[in-house]
Write a structure and sequence with these properties.
8 helices, mainly alpha, globular, two-stranded antiparallel sheet
């Protein structure tokens, strides 16, 4: 609901500051369209975290990990905001994504094992390297998918819903708390996508831009890593 209400405000802000996607020969939109959809998503996530932190069940998921996820997502969002407005080069964006992954590492979010021949425990340096690679790959996977109205938004919503179910089932089977950082983060991603989708389906009135695609990609990657 927050994303749905905030997106039109962000749309006007993007148009005012010329953070727009111009019409190219291969595009399906016929006029310059606002970007910066990621700002509406970020604001909605922040407000949601503030609003529900004292709930009896959800409050249990608030941890150092969740703070790290939000800070890393905020950093990559900032890189995306600049790219949507000034068209950053690929090297700068990759460096920003790597730094965002570094923030996750600072908060203890990294791959510790892989499901290979049972459980393969990873050395700390290998786990950190794989964490950075996984984060960058998923961020760019979502970014590359964002080429048609509603496409990336819908795919990420489905992915987040599937992962939420997996995280919840894993918690039930292993006796963990149902309210963990992965469950909360993916539940929020589902809401962000559902709130943004009405503004993004054809004909899109606003695009999520790199600010949104990189933001969502990092949230998906971090949620997966927190279970490993």
């Amino acid at each position: 609901a927050l994303t749905y209400m905030l997106t039109p405000l962000v749309q006007r802000l993007a148009l005012k500051y010329r953070a727009v996607a111009q019409v190219r020969d291969r595009d399906i939109h016929t006029e310059a369209t606002a970007r910066w959809g990621g700002i509406a998503m970020w604001l909605s996530m922040g407000l949601t975290l503030l609003a529900v932190q004292n709930l009896e069940l959800v409050g249990k998921s608030y941890s150092r990990e969740l703070l790290g996820i939000f800070l890393a997502a905020s950093f990559v969002l900032f890189i995306g905001i600049l790219d949507d407005r000034f068209e950053l080069d690929a090297i700068t964006k990759l460096a920003g994504q790597g730094l965002a992954a570094g923030i996750l590492l600072l908060f203890g979010i990294q791959l510790l094992w892989l499901p290979i021949n049972g459980i393969l425990i990873l050395p700390a340096n290998i786990g950190q390297l794989l964490t950075v690679l996984v984060v960058m790959i998923i961020i760019n996977a979502v970014n590359f998918v964002d080429g048609l109205d509603g496409l990336a938004t819908g795919i990420v919503a489905i992915s987040a819903a599937s992962f939420f179910g997996f995280a919840y089932l894993l918690a039930v089977e292993n006796g963990f708390s149902r309210a963990g950082a992965p469950s909360l983060a993916t539940a929020i991603v589902i809401g962000l996508c559902l709130g943004f989708l009405p503004h993004n389906i054809y004909p899109a009135r606003i695009f999520m831009g790199d600010s949104g695609s990189m933001f969502l990609g990092l949230l998906l990657a971090a949620s997966a890593i927190t279970l490993m």
